[in-house]
Design brief:
This protein has 57 residues and is mainly alpha-helical. The protein has 3 helices and no strands. 82% of the residues lie in helices and 0% in strands.
Length: 57
């Protein structure tokens, strides 16, 4: 299982790659369903990292 930092980086890279390559996301102003899902995964990974960092102090 990846660390929270690795999961965050991977989720961000996946979302950004999709946003660059998806025809609908790239040319339209409305993100597609996949983009919304990937953004949700990124936000969840970001929250998980924040929880891990706050517990380490």
């Amino acid at each position: 299982m990846p660390s929270p930092e690795e999961a965050l980086q991977q989720a961000r890279a996946t979302y950004e790659e999709h946003a660059r390559t998806c025809r609908q996301c790239h040319f339209d102003t409305v993100p597609c369903a996949v983009s919304k899902h990937l953004l949700r995964a990124y936000n969840n990974a970001r929250r998980e990292q924040m929880r891990a960092n706050s517990g380490a102090h």
